[in-house]
Design brief:
- By secondary structure, this protein is an alpha/beta fold.
- Helices cover 33% and strands 19% of the residues.
- The protein has a single domain, classed as HybD-like (Rossmann fold, 3-Layer(aba) Sandwich).
- The chain is globular, with a radius of gyration of 14 Å.
- It starts with a strand and ends with a helix.
Amino acid sequence: MKTILCFGNEFIKQDSLAKEIANEINMPEIEFIMCDSPDDILEFSKISPNKEIIILDVVQNIEEPMIINNIDDLEAGKLCTLHDFDVGFFLKLMKELGQIKDIKIIGIPQTGDKEKIKKEVIRRINDSSE
């Protein structure tokens, strides 16, 4: 069974789409884990050290879903408050500390046609299973 860690804040419209879509996808071979903190990635990697880490999250400034295989492709903004300590920064820190090796992020736009985005997410999940 493949596990996908889903991030987002259901109380902020531009950050809620990943969890909404994950809740609507019915794929028996996929377990979606709803995450509230980047610490959940660390916990998952401890519990399942040999399992591929796959994340579903919204990504700013993209128009359609995309796969990000390289953590270094994530833009780390300047940290001003603890609220700014986002998943991208946490992943880069974990990689630098040697706590994760391979990761795949299914990035989705903050807004758009939810049904179209959901179909594309399902396609990306199926493509990654081959």
